[in-house]
Amino acid sequence: MRVRNKVLALATVTVAALAGCGGGSGGGGGFLPVTPVPVQPPAPAESKVTLTVTVAGNAASPDASGNYTVAPGRNITVMASEAVEWSGSSTGDAVVTRHEISTIPTAWASRLANASKTQPGSYTLVARTADGLSKPLKFVVAAGDYRSGDYKVFGADGSRQSLTVDFDQRTFTMTDSNGVEATGALGAEDSGWFSVISDRVTGINTSVLRPFDDTILGAFPYAVPYANPVTYASYPLVASRALVTTQASLDGTYNRFRVDASPTGRDSRIGQVQISAGGTLMKQCTDNIIYRVDECPPASLVSSTVAADAESGMWSLADTATSTFQGRFAIARMGGENVYLSAGPSPSGSSQVFSIGLPETPAYTGFKSSAGGSTRHTLDVSSATATDYSYAPLGSASATQFALGGVGPSAPYGMRVAGNGPDRYFFMRSARLEAVVGSRGNANTQGFLHLGLILD
């Protein structure tokens, strides 16, 4: 009983003491209140997914803060060790935007643009796994011209080269397949065009570069094919850093102009190709008469299997019956469309070849103005309606006029033909590009190509 009374007394004292700790209006209490220690919520669990980063084709590592520093316009690829859901947003004062290349559950590929001309911006990419856990990556994007970077070049001289260009410093390096570099400067920007300043240029300079849509169109002073001694002249080019790398995205029907340079001269070929079956099959009509693929005589229809080439962005062709190698091509995204490109030595090695294929359209439509180079080493301006085409070298006092007509009842819908005396030319266009090629069998026209950027 005594023990119980002592326990009750102790409890009474304890309750009184606690009551005296109150902070009423009269104050009081002999004990200081105990300040509660806030409980920190546990840090969110981070996914164990492994993310591997490459920038401009090279393995990249984060800095001491865990960030990846990149230049605007450079290709960025993030590979995930398992399927994830990707999301991302710009952070900080400078606005960074994403120029998407492709996104699949195990890979994110893009280029980033920084709207600021003076300060870096940042972009946070988040990979979220199926169990709801996520892993962030932060890219710090330097200020600079988004158009700068690395491009794959397809030249109408019949060469495939690499271009690294810095539009802030206005410098470039063009590298051929043998590793030979041509370096130089660019003139001040004039309505989007940059003149090429190179020791290869002599006389009137008709070499220019015009960036647009992750593409560069223009002309460059290439070595004249098979010339001995080596001489240089301006030839049209298309350069892209937006080549299609997903095979199923290759599908399409393309009207194709091809020009060849050999030791005996230049030649032209005009036709249509079709890629189907998820990018695994190509059909070409090789008849001397220009047919749509679906109208091509069976004896003139060549079928090829398509496979990824060892060179990134390129695709290899092989005969479906014999597996004989038939060449390489690429598909580039321009103006929201696919464009077929090929350049390099022919499979036999007897000539240098350039091909461009524009998507087939229901009809040929006109445009107000276009500008670009030609294999006659001129820089040209042109315009067109559905029935007429006007063409003139820059600085010329007069233009050549063509009345456009249909190629034939079984020919591609988006192609037109026109004669100028004994000379004959073929015409086609896409959303951003227009092309003219000379017909075969005429020394004045065979092997001629004009390639222009549609301005409006």
CATH class of the domain at 149-240: Mainly Beta
Helix tally?
1
The largest sheet is: 9 strands, antiparallel
Strand order of the largest sheet: 29-28-27-26-34-33-32-31-30
Helix fraction, binned, reads under 10%
Rounded mean pLDDT score: 90
* Class from helix and strand fractions: mainly beta
How many strand elements?
Answer: 34
Radius of gyration: 32 Å
Named CATH architecture of the domain at 149-240? Beta Barrel
Shape type: globular
Strand-residue proportion: over 45%
Distance between the termini: 105 Å
In the CATH hierarchy, the third-tier topology of the domain at 149-240 is known as Lipocalin
- The poorly predicted ranges are 1-32
Keywords: Signal
Signal peptide: 1-19
Question: What secondary-structure arrangement, pairings included, does this model have?
Answer:
Blueprint: H1 2-20, E1 51-55, E2 58-59, E3 67-70, E4 76-80, E5 85-91, E6 96-104, E7 107-114, E8 121-128, E9 134-141, E10 149-155, E11 160-166, E12 171-175, E13 181-186, E14 194-197, E15 208-212, E16 215-223, E17 232-240, E18 252-262, E19 265-276, E20 281-285, E21 301-308, E22 315-319, E23 325-334, E24 337-345, E25 352-359, E26 367-374, E27 379-384, E28 388-393, E29 400-403, E30 405-406, E31 416-420, E32 423-429, E33 433-438, E34 449-454
Parallel strand pairs: 3-9
Antiparallel strand pairs: 1-2, 1-4, 4-7, 5-8, 6-7, 8-9, 10-11, 10-17, 11-12, 12-13, 13-14, 14-15, 15-16, 16-17, 18-19, 18-25, 19-20, 20-21, 21-22, 22-23, 23-24, 24-25, 26-27, 26-34, 27-28, 28-29, 30-31, 31-32, 32-33, 33-34
